[in-house]
Write a structure and sequence with these properties.
Layout (H helix, E strand, L loop, with lengths): L6 E3 L4 E4 H7 L6 H9 L9 E5 L13 E6 H11 L2 H17 L2 H22 L4 H4 L4 H10 L5 E2 H10 L6 H10 L15 H6 L2 E9 L5 E9 L1 H12 L1
GO molecular function: DNA binding
Protein name: Phage antirepressor KilAC domain-containing protein
Organism: Faecalibacillus intestinalis
Amino acid sequence: MNELLKVNYDNDRITLSARELHEFLEIETPFKKWFGRMAEYGFSQEIDYREVMDKIVQNPKGGRPSTDYEITLDMAKEIAMIQRSDKGKEVRQYFLELERKWNSPEAVMNRALEYSRKQVKALMEEKQGLIEENNQLKPKALFADAVSASNESILIGQLAKLIRQNGYEIGQNRLFEWMRENEYLIKKGERYNQPTQKSMDLGLFEVKERTITNPDGSTRITLTTKVTGKGQVYFINKFLS
């Protein structure tokens, strides 16, 4: 994916420069007037955007640098949609792709793992007496913290991949078989490979329903079993213990 605009990542969200977005969209209205108008579409300062000093765009009359705004990705998407132009459509698709990658299970877990590592380091620096306890925080525990921080459900095949990455060798087919044998998934019948009532009561799975239109105009419904964040922690601990 080509980088249309520079974005900034932190552990919570994606942000970018409103001035750079204004330039990319080729807006003829001066930036200050344009952004003021955009901000009136229900956005809140310090939540959707915050004022910053642009160190690159200098004031031609001298003095302080020009004002810029750091805006959230959600705000940028709405602004791009409002423009109703080819440039707006192009950059909005770019933002949607960024968001999809940012919210993928792998990205969410990587951020959670990094946050966990920073927390451990801070505790060790704060009090040397906690070093021994912190050394007990094995990668498995960090991994479980990362998964529990995820609100994204994943496919069973993706769960098998995550378990392998953490040291336990298992493939998608073998994981399906294990879940059926251990009564997490239904073994046969019309609901084959769908969650058992026990699994649903534990909150380990959710079933995604999708309606598909066939070429002849008829429709059919497909059901996809996905593992919840709680289910990911549950099964990973099952295998790693």
